[in-house]
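Need residues for this backbone.
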């Protein structure tokens, strides 16, 4: 582009979006999809990965391993210890979701059970202690729970996915928001995602 042509674009500026709240840094479930497409130039979703990916681990079990019964309905039903590392520098909040995609369809038509939903967790959170709920706003699980509810498969071995998301904004949602509402609200604002999967079968 030559100098004369560049001058034609001096009047252009970043577009604004209805419902965008620059003062609070929060994103409304109604505007994040449009905002994500405009800023990233692609469908809302995870941004470009960086060198050191975010990690979610537990000292109680390895990825793909067996979840100890202590953390299930057969034991104390308390949350396992979790370690959050390599949080991206631009993160403004964190989201934690635990769900089970192996539910029989005669119990849940979609085959999914949401066990734990927490959002607007502080980005400097690096550890969730065993049996302790993290700081943040608690969404509602499939069973109506606002706190962790452990594995309790009715038929066979199930997989349980602990999903950690780093966002570039806080979510403008209140307590008892569903997982689906949280997922819609964070579209276009996910900087990174990390996943920890554990298995459990009742004996």
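Answer:
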């Amino acid at each position: 582009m030559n100098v004369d042509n560049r001058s034609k674009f001096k009047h252009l500026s970043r577009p604004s979006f209805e419902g965008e709240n620059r003062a609070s840094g929060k994103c409304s479930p109604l505007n994040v999809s449009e905002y994500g497409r405009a800023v990233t130039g692609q469908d809302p979703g995870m941004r470009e990965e960086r060198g050191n990916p975010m990690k979610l681990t537990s000292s109680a079990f390895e990825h793909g391993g067996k979840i100890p019964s202590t953390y299930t309905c057969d034991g104390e039903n308390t949350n396992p210890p979790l370690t959050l590392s390599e949080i991206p520098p631009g993160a403004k909040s964190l989201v934690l979701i635990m769900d089970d995609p192996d539910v029989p369809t005669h119990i849940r038509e979609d085959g999914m059970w949401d066990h734990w939903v927490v959002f607007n967790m502080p980005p400097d959170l690096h550890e969730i202690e065993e049996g302790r709920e993290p700081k943040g706003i608690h969404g509602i699980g499939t069973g109506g729970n606002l706190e962790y509810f452990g594995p309790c498969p009715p038929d066979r071995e199930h997989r349980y996915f602990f999903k950690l998301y780093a966002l570039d904004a806080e979510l403008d949602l209140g307590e008892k928001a569903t997982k689906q509402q949280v997922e819609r609200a964070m579209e276009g604002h996910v900087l990174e995602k990390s996943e920890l999967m554990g298995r459990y079968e009742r004996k």
